[in-house]
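Notebook, bench 3.
Goal today: get a predicted structure for NADPH:quinone reductase-like Zn-dependent oxidoreductase from Nonomuraea angiospora so we can plan the truncation constructs. The sequence was checked against the plasmid map this morning, with no discrepancies at the termini. Length recorded as 330 residues. Pasting the sequence as submitted so the record is complete.
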Amino acid sequence: MTRTVRFHEVGGPEVMRLEDVEPGEPGPGEVRIRVDAIGVNRAEALFRSGRYIEPVKRFPAGLGSEAAGVIEAVGPEVNGFEEGQAVSVVPNFSYNDYGMYAERAIAPASSLVPRPDGVDAVSGAAVWMPYLTAYGAMVEVGGVRAGDVAVVNAASSSVGLAAIHTANRLGATPIAVTRTDAKRRRLVEEGAAEVIVSDEEDVAGRILALTGGRGAEYVFDAVAGPGVTELARAVAADGTLFLWGAQSGQPTPYPGFDLGMPALNLRTYTVHEITRDASRMRRAAAFVASGLRTGAFHAVVDRVFPLEEIVRAHRHMESNTQFGKIVVTT
């Protein structure tokens, strides 16, 4: 038996329970992992509360799609991985099928990446989802080039910080948007060329001023909701507004008509566009691994909680006060 986080109804963080569950043996294409660290993602809070893009199909339900650990057992039809190997798990599966919030867990081999030398478990659970998300939107889909301006809101999130680092590596100019002034200094230290405080400034007006009226070639929006119209006002002609999150929890209008039908590209995006495509994932893994190797990329960890404090970890995430990744250790 192994300690596993499950929930029996949708709701707030308090619905999660730590239960003893038999992890089972890996089937074809699967491995069993001794989980050492788990990356906590906002998608998990949405799934737990019944507000995710995919509904909970059965109870009790599990959580977690990003982790680091060591392979304990290898199922049939698995190639390239072996018992005792240190790996990270990346999100390429449904929460309805697998969950990493546990001391031991079954994972599809397709979700594994070897853990590079020098990357410990906490970092290994914190780096992949943010950088795969940023790489996919900025490189594979967006085609960000040197000299482009990339605006990133919710910039102090793990994905926001990865986007800042990725923009710098591509030669683009990252402009960070954050709600309060409290995180300005740290965002600059992480590489933001400019920081806009949305509670105090006209975001679109400031972006236009910083770009000489041109606007930003790319805007990466993790908040969505009514504010999307204001952000769209700051997108350059034929630029792209990526919606890669919906933290506001409010309906998101299409802004094109209200703004007079500009040459605006508006696109939703999730990391699964990368992790569920073998060719894209191969390129993404190489890009992230090279960034880790050279020091251009690194894990930004806000706080580490033990597994028995998973409720506290989710409450901390929903406070929106964190800077970087929340990690849970077993």
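Residues 7 and 162 are 30 Å apart (CA to CA). The mean pLDDT is 95.
Flagging this for group meeting.
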